[in-house]
Amino acid sequence: MPAIRATATAVTAAACAAVLATAIPAAAINSYNATPAPERTEVGALVATWDNDGDSTTPDRVDWVCSGTMIDADTFLTAAHCTTDWPDNVKFYVSLDQDVQSGLDAAAKKYPGDPAAQAAAVGVQGAAHNHPDYPGPSSDPHDISVVELPAAKVKARWTFTPAALPTAGLLDALGPQGREDTDWTVAGYGTQEAVNGPGGHTHPGGGVRMKAPVTFNALNKAWVRLGMTAPQGNGGACYGDSGGPDFAVIGGKRVLAATTITGDGPCYATNVAYRLDTPGARAFLSPFVKLP
User: Fold this and answer.
1) Can you list the positions of beta strands (E) in the chain?
2) How is residue 177 annotated by DSSP?
3) What one-character DSSP code corresponds to residue 180?
């Protein structure tokens, strides 16, 4: 499945869900069995400014586009499809605010016509580093990136404990029963599951940090698949949760085991997440963060 972020060049985050409903999504948090996550202060939103009118001089758009997680004091982990295929003058910001959409709405009124000031009102600017082999084959697309941030500016605005990364091969070592018995949680800022309307499917909401329980479904070389069907008590992910965390409680410790990448179009069934315990993921992360 191709992965997509939660914005499009000609639409705002509030309106993008209707546009994206025709594509296969990167996951986001849906409404059923989901709750706000103010305590997950290490989870943030990726905000972008970019040129939308083709003059290539100054940015004229700003939006939250994906989710992600702080994995040390200055490194924000997200998905490579969130930080690639942008105009040359794109700039990325990270916000750890609970409600990024409301912050952007307020900043738009305070700084009309100034996307850079609006982005700076909610986030801290950083530099993106994508996996050099993205996009790879579906078996391992290398869909991983980090945004390096000025640690002092991040510390001045937010208090958080970085997410704990997994040890090498942790999900393999759990074995089938261990993976089944593990408590999983997905978090992010994405929109809700599909809603039927006169114009077809729309995906409301987004821009607020939420969380939901999910359950283990399957594991392979690069992916962990997580069930998000409501009858089993699960919630799940949808548009805009790309790059966001899939936490697993292993040995009594909350571990950032994978990052959300894609799923089913209506956002009802499966969250497909990129494993962080594999040799490829660890090799990419090692220059940026100390690995366990």
Assistant:
1) 35-36, 43-50, 61-70, 75-78, 91-95, 124-130, 145-148, 183-188, 195-197, 200-202, 210-219, 223-227, 245-250, 253-263, 270-275
2) H
3) H
- The model's pTM: 0.88
Cα–Cα distance list, 192 to 28, 63, 185, 285 (Å): 7, 17, 16, 30
Task: Give the residue with greater pLDDT, 28 vs 93.
Answer: 93
Q: How many CB atoms lie within 10 A of CB 6?
A: 32
For every residue of 95-111, DSSP letters joined together read E--SBHHHHHHHHHHHS
Backbone angles phi, psi at 91, to 5 degrees: -130, 140
- How many other C-beta atoms can be found within 10 angstroms of the C-beta atom of residue 8? 16
d(CA 10, CA 272) in angstroms, rounded, equals: 27
Measured torsion, CA atoms of residues 135, 136, 140, 141, in degrees rounded to the nearest 10: 10
Task: Specify the higher pLDDT residue, 110 or 25.
Answer: 110
CA-to-CA distance for 225 and 97, rounded, in angstroms? 28
Residue pointed to by tokens 């103010």? 38
Query: Which residues share a beta bridge with 262?
Result: 272
- Residues 184-235 pLDDT 10s: 999 999 876 656 667 666 555 689 999 999 999 999 999 999 998 888 888 8
DSSP 127-152: EEEE-TT-S--TT-----EEEE--HH
Q: In which region does residue 108 sit, left (phi positive, over 0), alpha (psi from -120 to 50) or beta (all else)? A: alpha
What are the pLDDT digits (tens) for 114-148?
Answer: 999 999 999 999 999 999 999 999 899 999 999 99
